[in-house]
Amino acid sequence: MNLKDVLAQVPGLNRRFVYYLEAKGIIQPAKIRKERISRRDYSQQDIQTIQEVWRYYQRGYSLQVAHDLATRAERRTAYVAVPAPIRTQSQVLERLREYPQVTEASVVYGVESRILLKTETPDETDLFHTLVPFLAEIGMTGLPEVLRAKETFQRTNDKRGKKSQPIMLAYVLMKVPGKEVDSVMEELKLCQEVVEASTVYGESDIVAKVQVKAQRELDSLVMERIHGIPAVESTRTFIVVERLHWER
User: Fold this and answer.
1) What is the pLDDT of residues 211-239, one digit of tens each?
2) 3-class DSSP assignment, residue 66
3) For residue 156, how many other CB atoms are within 10 A of its CB?
4) d(CA 149, CA 152)
5) Mean model confidence pLDDT for the chain
6) How many CA atoms lie within 13 A of 91 on its CB side?
7) What is the 3-state secondary structure (H, E, C) of 3-53?
8) CA 112 to CA 20: how far, in whole Å?
9) Do domains 76-149 and 150-240 have the same CATH topology?
10) Which residue positions in the chain have pLDDT lower than 50?
11) Can you give the pTM of this predicted structure?
12) Which CATH architecture has domain 3-71?
């Protein structure tokens, strides 16, 4: 991709900033030789790095700190519950794709209409800098419910998500005594329907993402197996609306 296209993708970005990143070795675009000068060809990775560094730089961080945050391998996971009017949920869901910090978004059935997000950021404050202005823009006031993850396990060899199989997604939020959290997490690892689980700070203690083929499986998993774990005091289950879900 040429520089003109890169500038068009990042609002406010200027050539000088891009050239400075290149001079510092932060990005390394390929050089395509022309008759007189070489043209730079920016990869998708270059563009992502430019976007991330520029975003932090615009917030007042020095270039070095902005680069460190943008390229930091360690990410902090959080689950965020956002109230959203039913009529605007699909539009809000699509808008959230513009935010690379949001790795998964689902409209879920529950007591109130809401969108459940999974976010991954290098710094906890980044979550609020990203989402609060967006929520204000779409007319939502107040802070969303945020559950910051402490420890997470994810099933890497899961094969239940094949498109040939009907899949029902749900999130199960559990209340567990603090000293029993680790043992409950070990029990959840034995349930193949639980594809991901995190211990979290907040009103709930564990958030589990589950995949099942039908309502009957979900009922059995939650009411019999999860509630069959003695340390689980209570649960809240949010079923994902199938057509209103995406993940990166």
Assistant:
1) 999 999 999 999 999 999 999 999 999 99
2) helix
3) 6
4) 7
5) 87
6) 9
7) HHHHHHHCCCCCHHHHHHHHHCCCCCCEEEECCCCEEEECCHHHHHHHHHH
8) 48
9) yes
10) 159-161
11) 0.77
12) Orthogonal Bundle (1.10)
Q: Which tokens in the block code for residue 64?
A: 């070095």
For the record, the structure tokens of 54 come out as 């520029």
C-beta atoms surrounding 236 within 10 Å: 15
pLDDT of residue 52: 85
Task: Tell me how far apart the alpha carbons of residues 225 and 187 are, in angstroms, rounded to a whole number.
Answer: 9
Q: How many residues does the chain have?
A: 248
Type and span of the H or E element at 131: helix 124-137
CATH number of the 76-149 domain: 3.30.70.920
Structural domain boundaries of the chain? 3-71, 76-149, 150-240
CATH number for the segment(s) 150-240: 3.30.70.920
- The per-residue pLDDT for range 135-178, each reduced to its tens digit, is 777 777 666 788 999 999 998 765 444 555 658 999 999 999 99
User: How far is it, in rounded angstroms, from Cα 208 to Cα 181?
Assistant: 13
Quote the CA–CA distance of 133 and 14 in Å, as a whole number. 23
pLDDT given for residue 136 in this prediction:
79
